[in-house]
Design a protein that fits this description.
Elements: H1 2-16, E1 19-24, H2 39-50, E2 53-61, H3 67-78, E3 81-88, H4 95-101, E4 105-108
Parallel strand pairs: 1-2, 2-3, 3-4
Helix pairs in contact: 2-3, 3-4
Length: 117
């Protein structure tokens, strides 16, 4: 399964002509997670590995989170690229919506929705 995901991620990078970062927060009962300021350190490490690039695609799944962390995340990513896009396969609510609005482009599947219920 991990190998298939990596192949899919590489396919997305090639077809979107970008560097891909995947950020999914959990919504399983008892394992819930949300966007929080501590994620900025992890993003910073990944962005340093990528370096400055023309385009970054962020595949995002989240239901909630800290709005200032979302705002800071957009500002951080934008320091490393000239074009920023968000790919929403399903949910990008609350802070995910803020991140999406900070992108140049939003790509959504037909079952995705970036707003609160």
């Amino acid at each position: 399964m991990y190998k298939e995901r990596l192949e899919n991620y590489k396919w997305i990078e090639q077809n979107r002509n970008s560097k891909l970062i995947v950020y999914f927060t959990g919504d399983r009962q008892g394992m819930e997670a949300q966007i929080a300021p501590d994620v900025l350190e992890y993003f910073s490490e990944q962005l340093d590995k990528i370096g400055k690039t023309n385009k970054i695609s962020l595949m995002l799944y989240t239901r909630d989170g800290d709005t200032m962390a979302a705002y800071s995340l957009v500002n951080l990513v934008r320091q490393f690229c000239t074009e920023f896009e968000v790919i929403i396969p399903s949910k990008a609510r609350s802070s995910g919506t803020i991140i999406s609005l900070g992108a140049d482009h939003i790509m959504m599947t037909k079952q995705s929705y970036p707003w609160p219920d």
